[in-house]
């Protein structure tokens, strides 16, 4: 009974091939949109998550409680050595990087009170060897570019604005933690790119010990960036750090609290999935309702004959449900194949949104982070299952009315129609 019902349903779909093809095409296009766009968004959000939980923000950030609002040079994490040793002793902590930030004036050449070509800059004091070994602000810095005593690294945008090159001197004028003016000359060891906007545009990167000496910040730092084993466990890790004796007076923030605006963008991923499932739902409903309604009216005489020969109304209902289900699943299968192929191809080649929109450059800066314009879609099997589930539900709902109409036909009246 079931096999014969399926054969009849399959045959009926081929009666009006043009109408069936249009319905399949509409459903397939909806599924292509669902699979490709959501996989593209998955790749974009995965890259955003990697950048956000990367070297600048990390999994957990530790500051003076008022540092994020005031950014005053004297608002530091005190007793840095003790605090760091306590952090690194915790399980699941991979690294704890102290950093110093201080706004200064910078110019090429000799130190003067007010250099004519001075530019706003930012001293970034950090452990250069550790943060250039992979995963840090400096990326993969070559050994020959490591700064020594009285040497600094300069961000590529700042170097261009100052017209300064490797080997030249850079004058730095600022204020130390005791509010005394400080100034000195440093040699530019290298001009560096970075995944963080603060280094690219403003950064004068110097070893942590040099920055502490220059700014009178002995055994202090403005920030400790902690990387754990898994960004999903950041809240738990932050809670354990907040209980450490050396951090009782500090602000300990998991990455979701440290970068709330960016987290909001990431959390939109779930809504985007739902939006494109809804698009597929509408496309499937429009195609299936139209096809099944037209098919039901055209086959009124046939349904009457089947009912007169003893076919029960339930079998008529099953036949119509099966037709709509097969129609929907064929469209989903075609769309899934094409959509998956597009995802697999572009996951290797990437999609350059900058080039498509006429924007020059490879990155865009937002909240101090640099995000690439090139998106690499990430295949997610669940997107196909979303489509299958959506179309299955849509097929049942869309075919209910035609099925009820067919089941209620009077055999005699239907045969005469």
Keywords summarizing the entry:
single chain; 417 residues; alpha+beta; six-stranded mixed β-barrel; two-stranded antiparallel ribbon; 16 helices; 53% helix; elongated
Concise synopsis of the structure shown:
The chain is α+β, with helices and mostly antiparallel strands.
Spatial order of strands in the largest sheet: 2-3-7-4-6-5
pLDDT < 50 runs, ≥5 residues: none
User: How can the largest sheet be summarized?
Assistant: 6 strands, mixed, barrel
The dominant shape is elongated
Helix/strand class: alpha+beta
What is the H/E order? HHEHHEEHEHEEHEHEHEHHHHEHEEEHH
- By DSSP, the count of extended strands is 13
User: Ends: how far apart?
Assistant: 27 Å
Q: How many alpha or pi helices?
A: 16
Architecture blueprint of SSEs:
Elements lengths: L1 H12 L3 H36 L7 E5 L2 H4 L9 H9 L4 E16 L10 E8 L1 H4 L19 E5 H7 L6 E7 L5 E12 L4 H6 E5 H7 L8 E6 L5 H9 L7 E5 H4 L1 H39 L1 H9 L4 H37 L1 E2 H5 L5 E4 L2 E4 L1 E2 L5 H27 L3 H6 L1
Parallel strand pairs: 3-7, 4-6
Antiparallel strand pairs: 1-8, 1-9, 2-3, 2-5, 2-8, 4-7, 5-6, 10-13, 11-12
Helix pairs in contact: 1-13, 2-11, 2-13, 2-15, 11-13, 11-15, 13-15
């Amino acid at each position: 009974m079931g096999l014969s019902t399926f054969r009849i349903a399959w045959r009926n779909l081929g009666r009006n091939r043009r109408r069936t093809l249009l319905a399949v095409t509409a459903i397939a296009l909806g599924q292509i949109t669902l699979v490709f766009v959501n996989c593209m968004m998955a790749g974009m959000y995965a890259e955003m998550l990697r950048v956000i939980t990367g070297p600048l923000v990390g999994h957990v950030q530790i500051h003076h409680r008022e540092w994020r609002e005031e950014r005053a040079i004297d608002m530091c994490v005190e007793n840095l050595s003790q605090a760091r040793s306590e952090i690194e002793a915790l399980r699941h902590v991979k690294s704890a990087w102290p950093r110093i930030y201080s706004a200064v004036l910078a110019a090429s050449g000799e130190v003067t009170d007010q250099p004519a070509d001075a530019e706003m800059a930012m001293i970034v004091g950090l452990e250069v060897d550790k943060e250039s070994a992979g995963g840090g602000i400096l990326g993969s810095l070559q050994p020959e570019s490591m700064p020594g005593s009285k040497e600094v690294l300069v961000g590529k945008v700042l170097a261009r604005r100052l017209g300064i090159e490797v080997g030249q001197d850079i004058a730095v004028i600022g204020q130390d933690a005791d509010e005394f003016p400080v100034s000195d000359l440093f040699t530019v060891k290298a001009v560096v790119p970075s995944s963080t906007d603060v280094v690219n545009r403003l950064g004068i990167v110097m070893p942590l010990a040099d920055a502490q000496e220059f700014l009178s910040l002995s055994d202090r730092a403005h920030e400790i960036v902690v990387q754990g084993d898994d960004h999903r466990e950041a809240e738990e890790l932050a809670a354990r750090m907040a209980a450490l004796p050396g951090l009782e007076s500090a602000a300990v923030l998991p990455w979701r609290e440290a970068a709330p605006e960016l987290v909001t963008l990431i959390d939109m991923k779930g809504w985007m999935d739902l939006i494109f499932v809804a698009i597929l739902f509408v496309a499937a409903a429009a195609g299936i309702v139209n096809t099944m309604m037209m098919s039901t009216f055209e086959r009124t005489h046939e349904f009457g004959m089947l009912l007169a020969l003893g076919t029960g109304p339930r079998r008529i209902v099953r036949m119509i449900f099966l037709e709509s289900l097969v129609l929907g699943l064929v469209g989903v299968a075609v769309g899934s194949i094409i959509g998956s192929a597009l995802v697999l191809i572009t996951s290797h080649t990437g999609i350059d949104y900058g080039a498509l929109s006429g924007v020059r450059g490879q990155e865009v800066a937002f909240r101090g982070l640099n995000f690439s314009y090139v998106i690499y879609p990430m295949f997610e099997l669940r997107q196909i299952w979303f489509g299958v589930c959506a179309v299955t539900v849509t097929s049942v709902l869309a075919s209910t009315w035609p099925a009820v109409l067919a089941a209620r036909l009077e055999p005699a009246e239907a045969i005469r129609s």
